[in-house]
C-alpha cells in the first residue's frame, strides 16, 4: 500500500505588522474590542504578490524535504487570492521554482483550500497518479479587504506556507479525511465585487463589499468542525485521547476554544496563532503546522487533527500521522525582498484606491446578471 508522507514544510510570513492600534487610526474600533472578541493582537500585511509569498514558502518546503524541483509532479495553489485570474497562480509558482515537470492546479474552497489540497494530493499519490506534490496555502487578503468595514477588516491577515507530500511505504501522512460543505449557509459568507456576476459594474479591483453574518458563521463553523472531527476519529477507531496536537483553522480564538471543548481535547494540545497572524484563510493551517514543527510540538509519530471551515461553507477535519523526521533535510536561501513601508502605509495605499464612487455606490453592489436562476 502506498501512503503520502509529509516530508517538507516551509512558511513565508510578510514582515510588516499591522497592530490593533494601527486599525484604530482609520476605523472606529479598539484594541480592547478586537482582543476580547477575536483574540487577535496583530496581523501581517504583504508588500509582495501572492505568487512570491507562495514561491518562498514552497522553496523552503522543497529544501526541507531535500527534493529537487525537477521531481515535483504537481503543485496545488490553495487559496482565494489570485494575482491574476488567467494564467492561474500555481503556474506562476511553478515557473519561479523551475519545476518544469509539474502540473499546476489552483484550488479554491476558501479557508479550507490548503486542507482540501492536501486531501487531493494525498489521493492522487495513493492511487499512483503522481509521486511528489507541493501543496500551498496562501492569502493576500489585504489587497481586496473592504478597509472601511470594521466588522471584517480587523479579522484578516496575509501569509503563506507549503508542504511537500511524497509517496511512501510507511503508514504516515493523511490517514483520515472528512470533507463537507454546509451549502445552505453559503450566503452567510460572501465577498461581493469579484466574478462574472459583476460584469459591467466597473468596480475597481479590490473595491469589495463583504457580506458576513459573523454569528451564523460562528455557530455553523463550530458545529461542522466538531462533527467532522468526531467522524474522522471514529472512522480511524480513535478517540480524542489519541490526538497529540490539534491544528485548527484560526478565524477567532473563541471558535478555537469551542471546538476544543466540544471535541473533548484540552486547549494545551491546540496550536493557536490567531493572536499574531489573525485569520489568514487558507494559510492558517499550514502556517500553524510549520510553527508547531519549529516549536517542537510535533513529535515523531504524532497524531494531528486539522479541523477547518471556510466560505461555501466548506468544512473538513483531517487526521495526520507524522513520520519519523521532524527536522529539515536542508534550508532554502530564498527570501522576500526588503519591505520599506510600514504595514499601515501598505494598507493606506490600498485604501486610497477603494471606493472611488463613494459609499452609496458600494451599497448598490448587486450583481448585474442573476447570480443563479436554478432553484
Ligand atoms: N470594533 C468595534 N466594534 C465592532 C467591530 C469592531 N471591529 N466590529 C463589529 N463591532 C460592533 C458591531 O457593530 C456590533 O455593534 P452593535 O451592537 O451596536 O450593532 C457589536 O460590535 C457586536 O457585534 P457582534 O456581531 O455581536 O460581535 P460578535 O461577538 O459576534 O463578534 C465576530 C463578531 C468576531 C465577527 C464573530 O461573530 C466571529 O468571530 N464570527 C465568526 C468568524 C468570522 O465570521 N470570521 C470571518 C471569516 S470566516 C472564515 O474564516 C471562513
Describe the structure.
The chain is an alpha/beta fold. The chain has a single domain, classed as Thiolase/Chalcone synthase (Peroxisomal Thiolase, Chain A, domain 1), CATH 3.40.47. Helix content is about 30%, strand content about 20%. It has twelve helices and 13 strands. The chain has helices at about 20-25, 30-40, 50-65, 90-95, 115-125, 150-155, 215-235, 255-265, 275, 285-295, 345-355, 360-365, and strands spanning about 5-10, 15-20, 40-45, 75-80, 105, 130-140, 160-170, 175-180, 190, 210, 245, 305-310, 315-320. Strands 1-7-6-4-5 form a five-stranded mixed β-sheet, with helices on both faces. The protein has a four-stranded mixed β-sheet with strand order 8-13-12-11, sandwiched between helices. It has a two-stranded antiparallel ribbon with strand order 2-3. Helix 3 (about 50-65) crosses helix 4 and helix 7 packs parallel to helix 8 (about 255-265). About 50% of the residues are buried. The model has no long low-confidence stretch (mean pLDDT about 95). It binds acetyl coenzyme *A (ACO). Acetyl coenzyme *A binds near residues 110, 215, 251, 279 and 281. Acetyl coenzyme *A (ACO) binds next to helix 2, helix 6, helix 7 and strand 12.
